[in-house]
Specification:
single chain; alpha+beta; Ribosomal Protein S5, domain 2; Alpha-Beta Plaits; eight-stranded mixed β-sheet; four-stranded antiparallel β-sheet; globular; binds adenosine-5'-triphosphate; ATP-binding; GHMP_kinase_N_dom; kinase; isoprene biosynthesis; EC 2.7.1.148
Length: about 300
């Protein structure tokens, strides 16, 4: 085999419960992830030295050792004691700095692509463990579907989700820094609990699969911090809530906003209305599968 392409999905957080800042600089999370149908495709080819590129230029994606895909490749090689390298090429379909974990998707896709390219047969447990050392959202990008995330998000447990929904994804022209949002959360929430509670009601609603019940239970503790840092989001939120009072959500640390729909035609109508008002938006189904191989050569 000379090349492997893996597709990995964006994530949203149906619930994002954030704990107080810990001495190690991290936050305990109790989150419910859902993988949604916006994807990055990552192609790995054996090479003399490590490098990363994009199929098309995209602002904000580092093309040096800061790229998390390269960190993932090196971590997998180190885990197996291999002195090998690869050229990683990314086709980005996930917004950059949008709160949809595009970098994490690339890391997960790289782990899987190199595991297959080099026929390493890494166990699922080891892949998830290596993923967790790369970033909180990376294990979930491997798993996909809908899952509870605990620890700082890296401990993922699948949850039953019988829903099948459409998210209107409202994009922002400017990214929002995840560390900045968490930093402001710390200022706004000095009394946040050490361990945020697991959202049992949402987990029960997902098993039932009723989008209206799920819509009522969407929650994100980072909303106040994101609104402060990006006051322009407040107007967008007001517009979206006038269309779907209970199905509006900030994606992760933002600035992407989401509107839940059960029916794809209604979702398309919302996209058309928002587009006519000048918003940039797209549609994504959820839940979808985690990182998976799409082509071998
Ligand atoms: P986070 O996953 O930290 O919540 P996000 O989902 O909002 O972030 P990403 O698109 O993952 O946004 O980008 C976060 C940061 O990671 C950016 O500063 C970006 O420069 C950096 N980065 C590193 N590697 C990648 C990559 N392969 N794709 C996108 N961004 C990357």
């Amino acid at each position: 085999m000379t090349q492997v392409t893996v597709r990995a999905p964006a994530k949203i957080n149906l619930h994002l419960g954030v704990g107080g800042l810990r001495p190690d600089g991290k936050h305990a999370l109790a989150t419910v992830y859902q993988a949604v149908g916006l994807y990055d495709d990552v192609t790995a080819v054996e090479a003399e030295s490590w490098s990363v590129g994009l199929t098309e230029p995209v602002d904000g994606v580092p093309l040096d050792d800061d790229n998390i895909a390269l960190r993932a490749g090196r971590a997998l090689a180190a885990h197996h004691g291999l002195d090998r390298a690869a050229r990683i090429t990314i086709a980005k379909g996930i917004p950059v700095m949008g709160g949809m974990a595009g970098g994490s998707a690339d890391a997960a896709a790289t782990l899987l692509a190199l595991d297959r390219l080099w026929d390493l047969q890494t166990s699922d447990d080891d892949l998830l463990r290596i993923a967790g050392t790369l970033g909180s959202d990376v294990p979930f990008a491997l798993l996909g579907g809908t899952a509870l995330g605990t620890g700082h998000g890296e401990i993922v447990t699948p949850v039953e989700d019988t829903s099948s929904v459409w998210w209107v994804v409202v994009l922002s022209d400017e990214g929002l820094s995840t560390p900045a949002v968490y930093g402001h959360f710390d200022e706004l929430s000095p009394d946040a609990p050490a361990e945020p509670p697991v959202p049992d009601a949402l987990i029960a609603a997902l098993a039932g699969g009723c989008p209206e019940e799920i819509g009522d239970l969407l929650a994100n503790d980072l909303w106040p911090a994101a609104r402060d840092l990006r006051p322009d989001l407040v107007d967008v939120e007001v517009t979206l809530r006038s269309m779907a009072p209970d199905g509006v959500l900030l994606s992760g640390s933002g600035p992407t906003l989401l509107v839940l729909h059960e029916d794809v035609d209604e979702a398309r109508t919302t996209v058309a209305e928002l587009t006519a008002q000048g918003y940039r938006c797209t549609l994504a189904p959820g839940p979808v599968a985690g990182a998976h191989v799409v082509t071998y050569a």
